[in-house]
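#struct-help
A.M.: can someone run this one for me? Single chain, 193 residues.
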Amino acid sequence: MFDRKQDLKLIKRCKRGEEVAFQELLTRYRSAIFGLCYRMTHSAEDARDLAQEVFIKVFSLLDRYDESYAFSSWIFRIATNHCIDHLRRNRLRFLSLDGYTTPDGDEIEIPIPDKAARPDRVLEMREAMDKLEEVIVDLPPHYKAIILLRHDQELSYEEIATVLDLPLGTVKARIHRARAMVQQMLKARSYDI
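D.P.: on it. Structure tokens below:
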């Protein structure tokens, strides 16, 4: 997903104070970090603030980055922990939205891979996604983070272990528990997906 060699070149340039390199690194990761923050908080405003705070933190700690690890793992770890801290501090319950919106507030439709899908099938898929999103929102923050890293960011178990600084077995166990919790929550709400 992210080119590790290119990241390392940019980081070295950033450490030398090259503002252009800083901007390139920001551009490479901006949407992924914003996306993670948005999925964790379900608030475009909070996600923008959190993503900005993540980048401030990342660039202030850049001299402590260990180049033997992927930069993407390091930045995702910082972003995930920052979002979990935010959720714990605010102890807010987020409600699922009826529709999906861009960070600018414009409504968007869910992309449907099968362009020839029947309208009733499209509606069923949207309802299923809404139900799933509603349940994921209610997961405890550490389970929500692990589910989003796995299924939204499509990180491998090993990458998640690096991001969250957890043993691989713990990651696998948490993903298994999170999936079981999602299924239980769907069943408890009488959602049939």
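A.M.: thanks! The helical segments are 4-15, 19-41, 44-60, 71-90, 119-137, 141-152, 157-164, 168-188.
D.P.: also worth noting: The mean pLDDT is 83.
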